[in-house]
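Tokens for chain A. Residues wanted.
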């Protein structure tokens, strides 16, 4: 063994080994850093620490010009709802039910009354972000979008020199409702605003009231829903955007921004990882070239060692140990550099997202160890084949 080491040291090229070491270190660091950065940043787009907390999306079908001219409604069939419910990113699906009758609401303003036509919609109660109070006989609780109140206060009220209204004042106003359905059927009720929703941009009434009033006033009109509310497991899942685009659906808001951002993050991380793997592959080539040159320079002496009784395994061992030691040093230095760089960018991230939790180190560790095992295996295999070639010669 000592004799083989002496032969190895005589013709070893420090420059070639240093080139392999630095290239492999750069490649390894690039790969593990891209994996770790992805794991650390991902919670900012999805999960408990996400700055995007909305786990509900509202879907409708894209209205084509021809369908619009014909007055055709773009509804969701039972098959559409079943297909959507079966997707892995979906927790549950709720339907919007719209009033199939005319709604006229009026409010007493001193000696006069002010009224307007309006509409009602409902969704299952578990999707509403405001608790419904217990319904009183003859009174309908109503939830308005919070954006409606802001639109009135900062748009209409200012332009018309009208007083601004708080949520409490609006909740004190009682409306007279006249519901008119098929065959002149009519129902008169009282309405009161009981809350303001930030999730649903519609005039909401309880699902039980909507169902019973539609059965009473429009028993022959029960169309399929035109909108669906979907609770998703992770709003940052890029599969949501893919599914919606493939089926030509539309969203009521920008709920897919998280998914698009995550998809972009995956692409960038994948490109950086591919570059790192390419650098690692080039460093592997540099190391193999260096060792093959060493073997070639010492081929006569190595053949003599084989002839006097040294086995190919013993002759190969010093070269194999050299590659393993270099790969171990690369792995350890790459993770040391990773921890240092990670601490620097996490400090910046915590300034933006104070509650952001650190991602796990396990994926980056497994990727790094995986690269080490693969590179070392092929290094050992290549050296052994080269030495076996000397034996045959």
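Reply:
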């Amino acid at each position: 063994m000592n004799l083989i080491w002496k032969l190895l040291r005589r013709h070893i090229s420090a420059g070639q080994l240093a080139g392999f070491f630095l290239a492999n270190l750069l490649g390894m660091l690039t790969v593990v850093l891209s994996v770790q950065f992805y794991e650390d940043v991902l919670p900012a787009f999805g999960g408990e620490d996400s700055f995007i907390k909305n786990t509900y999306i509202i879907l409708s079908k894209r209205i084509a010009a021809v369908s619009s001219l014909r007055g055709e409604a773009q509804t969701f069939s039972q098959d559409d709802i079943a297909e959507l419910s079966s997707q892995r990113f979906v927790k549950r699906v709720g339907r919007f039910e719209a009033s199939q009758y005319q709604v006229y609401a009026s409010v007493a303003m001193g000696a006069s009354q002010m009224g307007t036509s309006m509409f009602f919609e409902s969704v299952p109660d578990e999707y509403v972000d405001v608790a419904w109070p217990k319904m009183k006989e003859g009174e309908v609780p109503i939830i308005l979008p919070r954006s409606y109140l802001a639109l009135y206060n900062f748009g209409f009220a200012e332009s018309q020199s009208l007083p601004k209204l708080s949520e409490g004042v609006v909740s004190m106003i009682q409306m007279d409702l006249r519901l008119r359905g098929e065959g002149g059927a009519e129902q008169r009720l009282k309405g009161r605003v009981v809350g303001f929703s930030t999730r649903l941009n519609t005039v909401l009434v309880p699902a039980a009231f909507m169902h019973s009033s539609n059965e009473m006033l429009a028993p022959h009109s029960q169309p399929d829903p035109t909108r669906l509310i979907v609770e998703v497991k992770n709003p940052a899942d890029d599969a949501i955007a893919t599914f919606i685009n493939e089926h030509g659906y539309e969203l009521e808001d920008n709920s897919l921004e998280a998914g698009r951002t995550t998809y972009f993050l995956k692409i960038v991380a994948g490109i950086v990882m591919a570059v790192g793997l390419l650098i690692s592959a080039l460093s592997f080539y540099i190391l193999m070239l260096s060792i093959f040159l060493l073997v070639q320079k010492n081929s006569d002496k190595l053949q003599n060692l084989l002839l006097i009784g040294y086995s190919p395994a013993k002759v190969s061992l010093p070269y194999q140990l050299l590659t393993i030691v270099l790969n171990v040093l690369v792995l350890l230095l790459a993770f040391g550099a990773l921890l240092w760089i990670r601490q620097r960018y996490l400090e910046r991230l915590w300034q933006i997202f104070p509650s952001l939790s650190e991602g796990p180190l396990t994926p980056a560790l497994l990727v790094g160890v995986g690269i080490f095992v693969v590179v070392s295996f092929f290094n050992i295999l290549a050296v052994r084949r080269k030495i076996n070639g000397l034996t045959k010669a």
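Residues 47-53 have pLDDT under 50 and may be disordered. The CA atoms of residues 23 and 282 lie 8 Å apart.
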